[in-house]
Amino acid sequence: FLFFDRDDRYFYTRAILGSALAWARASAKCLNFNSMLILLPVCRNLLSFLRGTCLLDHNLTFHKLVAYALALLTAVHTIAHLFNLERYNHSQQAADGSLPAVLSKMHLQGSDKWLNPIHSNHTTVEYVAFTTIPGLTGVIITLALILMVTSSTEFIRRNYFEIFWYTHHLFIIYFAGLVIHGIAGLVRGQTEKSLEDVHPHRCARYLVRKDEDCTHHCCKDPEFGSIPAESWKWVLAPVILYIFERILRVWRARQKVVVTKVVMHPARVLELQMQKKGFRMEVGQYIFVNCPAISLLEWHPFTLTSAPEEDFFSIHIRAAGDWTERLIDTFQQQKLEMPRIEVDGPFGTASEDVFQYEVAMLVGAGIGVTPFASILKSIWYKFQQADQTLKTKKIYFYWLCRDTGAFAWFNDLLASLEQKMAESGKADFLTYRLFLTGWDTSIANNVALRFDTATDTVTGLRHKTIFGRPMWNSEFTAVAAAHPRSVVGVFLCGPGALAKSLQKSCHQHSSLDPRKVKFYFNKENF
């Protein structure tokens, strides 16, 4: 604000517009800055390369905050310019000989050195907004931003992902409009040459009482021009970076992927096992998948459920929307030729860090168990290979599911781990708890009748399924008591409400004494 108050180029502009000029220009500067930032968090190859800070693990949260800032600043900028246009209109119609009235009537005939963009008493604010380059591009990029923000709500992303995906690509129109928006700007300032000849501090007072036979150096009328567009300077580098990011994605996606095995699990969960030349992964990473037979443009993220030690990589896909439903149907109906799959990735997420902790708490909700499938498989292979570099000494695994069918595809892995740990004499290494959050009377009665059996009625595993939700206070208290001097990593792949609960528990149960137990929270972010 101080910058625009002190800049002499805007002296006469301020005389017409008042404080609304500073609001419009300052919000424009902030819009440019945030537009520079908005693309960086979604350059996933760049983030995968630079990963290692808290900010990079919360890239989508940062992306959303920048988007909200853009929406707020756009509202401020638009409202300020509506005030500006009204004041321009009022000054053009004024006939009182005031400074705004005099300035508004300068250079109107055959000259581009005018200050007021409204040249006639018949010109309306709506006409300027929809017929000038700044006005029209402003309307277009505002509409594009509104569509992108409103279609990014949790409800639409979860239930109508295609709408979210397609409207988000209006960012191309947004950036194109942003670059063009500043060209031939409506808000003008005094030119540098005119400032030298008739500086407003010396000559402004003569404009309202100029004699017809004026001969001194302030007799010449000030001249005005558009302020050079600056938006392109702010967004050029991130746009180029994003273009290279998209080129890299296309190149990686074109590399051949061979689907080696297709498994249909209960609860409509599809497992795809694939191979790709040069593909290397770490535990808990994710890939983006495209099936051209369904859509050429849509890419969806899936966490890898295979371990780095395996000679293939796999994902588990739950029916949760139009695209996943169609993908599952396509693989169920395929006869001779396997549908083509394109893969971009893998990309790093917080779960890669699980082996950096001596004690780890893994919490998965529903299909959110997938990153921990990769971790548990990797642990299994490390035990088989007697890996002495394994830093992790204890893992607590919690899985929350609404229905019994969801447990089925993961049972074999847990059963194998149970057996391997027992054979290795490390049965206490893995403690897992399965929570069934939705059940009916028949399930409860069946469990009650077989309560004394050695294995669980629902899963067939040694550990019994718990009906209801975890009491996190009790769980954290027990872990803190068992490991009073350890640093515990808490990893979640699940909903936001559960994340808040776990984050709160981490804070409450971490000791202020640096020599005692500390809980550190990590969350998968898609």
UniProtKB/TrEMBL annotation:
One cellular-component annotation, GO: NADPH oxidase complex
Transmembrane segments: 65-83, 127-151, 163-187
Catalytic activity entry: NADPH + 2 O2 = 2 superoxide + NADP(+) + H(+)
UniProt keyword terms in alphabetical order: Cell membrane, Glycoprotein, Heme, Iron, Membrane, Metal-binding, Oxidoreductase, Transmembrane, Transmembrane helix
Signal sequence segment: none
Main location: membrane
Any coiled-coil regions, as ranges: none
Gene Ontology terms: biological process: defense response; superoxide anion generation
Gene3D superfamilies recorded: Nucleotide-binding domain of ferredoxin-NADP reductase (FNR) module (3.40.50.80), Translation factors (2.40.30.10)
Membrane topology annotation: Multi-pass membrane protein
FAD-binding FR-type domain ranges (all copies): 243-353
MF (Gene Ontology): metal ion binding; superoxide-generating NAD(P)H oxidase activity
Compartments where found: Cell membrane
Family matches, as PANTHER family: NADPH OXIDASE, NADPH OXIDASE 1
Name assigned to this protein: NADPH oxidase 1
Originating species: Tauraco erythrolophus (Red-crested turaco)
